Every structure is written in C-alpha cells, then in structure tokens.
Amino acid sequence: MPAHDGETAKKHYEDFPVGETVAFGRKVVTKEEIVAYARAFDPQPFHLDEAAARNSVIGRLCASGWHTCAMLMRMYADEVLLAATSLGSPGIAEARFMKPVFPGDTLSARYTCAEKRILKSRPGVGMCRMQFELLNQQGEIVMTWDTQQLYRIRHPERAA
C-alpha cells in the first residue's frame, strides 16, 4: 500500500515506538457544553440540572462519560490522528471512568503505545495497541482507554 500524496510528512506506524508516552491536548470544559451534550445524547438529570445533580451520588453537575470520551477523541483527532496516516480503529477494548469531569475542569491527555504488530492480512498496515489517560488540572486520571489503532506503514516493502 504506497503512501498517498500528502502523507509523506505524516506519522506512520513506525513513528509510534512501543513504551513511549506522549502528552497532548488541552480542553476547558464548560457547563453549557455538558448540558448541551446531555440534552442531545445522555439526558440523565445529574448531567442536565445542577439542583438534580446535588441530589445525586456525585453531588454536582458533571459530564457524561460518553461526553468525556468524545472530548478525548476530539483532542486525539486534532493533535495526533489528523497528523498521522490513521486508518481507523477496530474498537476500544476498555474505557474506564475514574473520576467525574466537572464544569471548569481543564483536561489534557497522554497515550502510550503498549504493543504493535504488522497485519498479515493487510500488507502495508500496522496495528498499535494504545493506552490513553485523560487527566484533569490536578493531574488526576479521570478516564482511561485501551484501544487499537491502525496506521499505514511507511515502507511496507521493508517491513515484510
């Protein structure tokens, strides 16, 4: 699978070393976006209304876990995937919500390439197992992902 025009400078499979951790992203979370996301996709009271949230287990308005996933995905797309030869993902093996995300939180992320392999069934494609951590402004991990990501191999003829 040869490189497509414009892909030469992008990150390829070879550019994700196993064991390397890379920090990326910055996102300030607002009350308005928490409520808007909840209205559209997860209309539970503790995501929609501060008074209802006070009576919840969390005790205050917080982002939906799915909204938290979407925020991480946006940071990852903007800062990593769009600058890479990403071919998509066969899915997330695990997503864990460790702490709630509140209005005013500033989120950042990091990923570590845990392992990788070249696909025998698709010449020119490699799969990286990526482990993500999403952190709040105190450096607390609020969510983790364990996922696979497909990338083009820069020089498939050398990788065989």
What profile does the largest beta sheet have? 5 strands, antiparallel
Q: What top-tier CATH class of the domain at 13-29 and 64-155 fits best?
A: Alpha Beta
End-to-end separation in angstroms reads: 12 Å
- Overall, the morphology is elongated
Mean pLDDT: 94
In DSSP terms, counting alpha (H) and pi (I) runs of 4 or more, how many helices? 5
What's the CATH topology label of the domain at 13-29 and 64-155? Answer: Thiol Ester Dehydrase, Chain A
Give me the CATH superfamily of the domain at 13-29 and 64-155: Hotdog Thioesterase
* CATH architectural group of the domain at 13-29 and 64-155: Roll
Roughly how much helix do the residues carry, as a percent range? 10-25%
- The helix/strand series, from N terminus to C terminus, equals EHHHHEEEEH
Estimate what percentage of residues fall within beta strands: 25-35%
By DSSP, the count of extended strands is 5
Oligomer: single chain
**Low-pLDDT segments:** none
Radius of gyration: 18 Å
What is the SS-derived class? alpha+beta
Output the keywords:
alpha+beta; 5 strands; 5-stranded antiparallel beta sheet; 5 helices; 160 residues; Thiol Ester Dehydrase, Chain A
What order do the helices and strands come in, and which of them pair?
Elements: E1 21-28, H1 31-41, H2 45-48, H3 50-54, H4 65-79, E2 91-97, E3 106-118, E4 125-135, E5 141-152, H5 156-159
